Amino acid sequence: MIVRRVARGDAEAIVALLNPIIRAGGLTAMDQSFTADEQRAFIDGLPPGAIYLAAVEAGTIVGIQDVLPLPDGTGAISTFVRLDRHGRGIGRTLTRATLARARQQGYRRLVALVRADNPTALAFYQAVGFRVAEIEPAVPGREVRLVFPVTAGDSHALPRP
Ligand SMILES: CC(C)(COP(=O)(O)OP(=O)(O)OC[C@H]1O[C@@H](n2cnc3c(N)ncnc32)[C@H](O)[C@@H]1OP(=O)(O)O)[C@@H](O)C(=O)NCCC(=O)NCCS
């Protein structure tokens, strides 16, 4: 497996990975399938400082992870691994590469917003070093906010005891 930056030519492959996850339901806040054009527009419109990586196996994109910059050195991370390739370390490999870039680029913390009814994602982010910071009473359903302190000792990043 290699990890590389996403390019606009990856749009078709990304929607082929993403749309079955959206259609499966309950795994992401996204509820509408994407077209390749919409995905291309997303790639073209990535703001400075964004990170968007693809895990590629035998020429096929099997996972994607993005970090979108928020104020104050925070990045919002999302991870999607092909439904038929879960549990093989793809998400972990992507996260290692993303964290290295996030450090280089000066991010202070990464946050993941995960549906409270998505135990796989909650377990995944905690397994790769995120900690639950808060549970948001969002409607519909609750979202759990997990934080990874990119900067050691970043007190803002850690959940309060
Ligand atoms: C969450 C997701 C990205 C994890 O990717 P993955 O490649 O399957 O995860 P990995 O194989 O790298 O797992 C890393 C660790 O996470 C934990 N983990 C992953 N899946 C798990 C599961 N189903 N149950 C419990 N722990 C799990 C394990 O600790 C695992 O380490 P281990 O294999 O050494 O035990 C993937 O399940 C996915 O794409 N889900 C659908 C989309 C989604 O929910 N995204 C998150 C919202 S942004």
From TrEMBL:
Keyword list (alphabetical) reads: Acyltransferase, Transferase
Q: Which residues form a coiled coil?
A: none
Molecular function (GO) terms for this protein are: acyltransferase activity, transferring groups other than amino-acyl groups
Indicate the segments forming the N-acetyltransferase domain, all copies: 1-151
Q: Which domain of life is it from?
A: Bacteria
PROSITE patterns per the UniProt record, alphabetical: GNAT
Please give one Pfam family short name: Acetyltransf_1
Any idea what this protein is called? Ribosomal-protein-alanine N-acetyltransferase
